[in-house]
Design goal:
The complex is a heterodimer.
Chain A lengths: L10 E10 L6 E11 L4 E5 L6 H8 L7 E6 L2 E2 L7 E4 L11 H5 L1 H5 L4 H14 L15 H14 L4 E5 L7 H18 L2 E6 L2 H7 L2 E5 L6 E6 L14 H13 L8
Helix pairs in contact in A: 4-5, 7-8
Chain B lengths: L1 H31 L9 H14 L2 H32 L1 H16 L2 H12 L3 H25 L3 H9 L4 H38 L5 H10 L3 H29 L18
Classes of the chains: A alpha/beta, B mainly alpha.
Bound molecules: adenosine-5'-diphosphate and magnesium ion (MG).
Adenosine-5'-diphosphate binds next to strand 2 and helix 1 of chain A.
């Protein structure tokens, strides 16, 4: 039997490794990843492109099994997809034939939960992400930022305690992105979820996270976990503070000058 | 009012071109005194068209051709959809069934049509079957492509919710296949009219195809042209009906129309 989760970590990753394929063509994507995430904590994962960040998402959400180590979510070992984790991908991944509201309710339908009971919650979440007026619109009628907000509402709808986001704002323009970072902070404060936020923007990581996991190039290893000293609540002006610049410099130094913005 | 003006302005040049074309045609036929059994003048075609409906029951024949085309189209499309779904739900079937479908498709239906008339007679059945055969393939390949070409991220999202195979079909593959289905249907409806005419050429005593053959034999080329007009009116009407259905079903697939602003991010 696997040992119990350390304390009451929401997410516990233990010596996880991942090798794609076998033989000479095998790709080692992750190696010796160990990390404990406390309930309600906001973790950012930064690392160069191709270092296995998305792989980590696939492992934590049970879409793939690691080739080494184990992952515990809410104290239970992950050995398949789980409904206690919400996912936000890099692209919104909405279903264009469903209204925004029905997109948010999709997890409820797939999980065979009573749709009528979750309707009010879905509407509240759409209000929370600023899309209350667009519940009956279709995805093609929304801008990229609005679509990604709908995707966030969808990830929250089944009230999973853990939220995993894979470069969710990577495709947005800089201004929309800052706005989304502010909103995400607000949503996180309101919902008190455990968040694992994958990004390759150091500034975004420093703005949002309690702790920043810095990864090496492939095979991805954890170089360091930095505790963010920036006080909450953070405003966009805080990004101009010397302390902010110091944090960014620290992370960039660890990445060896890599991981420049976008 | 504004819309009407815009429409007229947009249609103005095509209309002028059409009038010039018809007028030029008429003028050349008269000036060169081309024999009417070679190329008829537009005026002669119009006369034949009106006389056909008044005296030769064009409407009745058109109804029969149209009925054959539409029922064969529906039958072939339904079969195409059914086979596509089966093949995608049971992938093992694909390797078994698909070679026959391709083999069937590579045989020109015109070559098979006489045989089908021998088997199923001079009546409507043989035409409906020929039409079904020509309609089936475009629907089948398009629906198969639509069921398969689903976005990997959407599949991942459903997988992360432990969706069953049936749920993946229902929530993702079926709706994803709809635009492909309509692409197939649009091709099939055109093929369907051609198929019905081919069937009537091979052996029939009713229908527009039968009338065209008769007109050709009696060198009544004006009547043949009038019958071509009937056929193109039928084709355009069927196509428009399909387009109207498509617009209603695929409303979510419409890209935001030019000039109409998308909803703003902030109120
Ligand atoms: N399904 C797969 N099969 C083989 N190799 C893969 C697969 N998915 C990812 N990889 C490889 O694993 C490495 C890490 O990929 P990924 O996790 O997507 O990195 P990141 O998200 O950090 O950019 C890359 O080199 C990539 O080519
Ligand atoms: Mg990635």
């Amino acid at each position: 039997m696997p040992p119990e989760a350390i304390g009451d970590a929401a997410l516990s990753i233990r010596d996880v490794g991942m090798v794609y394929g076998a033989g000479p063509g095998a790709v080692e994507a992750l190696s010796g990843i160990t990390l404990d995430v406390a309930p309600g904590e906001f973790i950012a994962v930064v690392g160069p492109s191709g270092c296995g960040k998305s792989t980590l998402l696939r492992l934590v959400t049970g879409l793939r099994r690691p080739t080494g180590g184990e992952i515990l979510l809410q104290g239970r070992r992950v050995d398949g997809p789980r409904s206690d984790v919400g996912i936000v991908f890099q692209s919104p991944v909405l279903f264009p034939w469903r209204s925004v509201l029905d997109n948010v309710l999709l997890p409820i339908e797939v999980l065979k939960l009573p749709k009528a009971r979750y309707r009010d919650r879905a509407m509240e979440l759409l209000d929370l992400v600023g899309l209350g007026r667009f519940a009956m619109n279709y995805p093609a009628e929304l801008s990229g930022g609005m679509q990604q907000r709908a995707a966030i509402a969808r990830a929250l709808v089944q009230d999973a305690p853990v939220l995993i986001m894979d470069e969710p704002f990577g495709a947005l323009d800089a201004m929309t992105r800052e706005q989304m970072n502010l909103e995400l902070q607000r949503i996180w404060q309101a919902q008190r979820k455990t968040v694992v936020f994958i990004t390759h923007s150091i500034a975004e990581a420093v703005f949002l996270a309690d702790r920043i996991v810095v990864m090496s190039p492939r095979p991805g290893r954890i170089l360091d976990v930095i505790t963010n000293t920036m006080p909450r609540l953070r405003s966009l002006d805080d990004m101009l503070a010397p302390a902010f610049a110091e944090q960014v410099r620290h992370v960039r130094a660890l990445l060896g000058g890599r991981g420049a913005e976008l | 009012m504004n819309a009407l003006l815009r429409w007229m302005r947009r249609q103005f040049v095509p209309l002028i071109v059409f009038v010039l074309f018809i007028g030029g045609w008429e003028a050349i036929i008269r000036a060169l005194q081309v024999e009417s059994f070679l190329v008829p003048a537009p005026s002669a075609v119009i006369v034949a068209f009106v006389r056909g409906f008044a005296q030769a029951n064009y409407l009745g024949h058109a109804a029969i051709t149209c009925f054959q085309a539409v029922s064969g189209f529906l039958l072939g499309s339904a079969l195409g959809i059914a086979i596509a779904v089966m093949v995608v739900v049971f992938p093992a079937l694909e390797r078994i069934v698909y070679p026959y479908i391709v083999a069937l498709q590579t045989v020109p239906k015109v070559a098979v049509a006489p045989l089908i008339v021998v088997w199923f007679g001079f009546g409507m059945e043989s035409k409906v079957i020929i039409v079904a055969l020509v309609s089936l393939f475009p629907v089948l390949v398009n629906v198969m492509a639509g069921l398969k070409s689903v976005d990997q991220d959407r599949l991942d999202l459903l997988a992360s919710l432990s969706a069953s195979r049936w749920q993946i079909l229902r929530f993702l593959r079926f709706p994803n296949a709809l635009p492909f289905l309509f692409a197939g249907l649009n091709t099939a409806i055109v093929f369907a009219v051609i198929g019905a005419i081919v069937g009537e050429f091979v052996g029939a005593n009713r229908g527009i195809g039968f009338l065209i053959l008769q007109a050709n034999f009696s060198l009544d080329i004006a009547a043949a042209f009038a019958l071509f007009m009937v056929l193109s009116i039928m084709g355009v009407t069927l196509h428009s009906i399909l387009q109207a259905i498509q617009r209603r079903v695929l409303f979510w697939n419409r890209t935001v129309e030019a000039g109409q602003p998308a909803p703003r991010d902030t109120p």
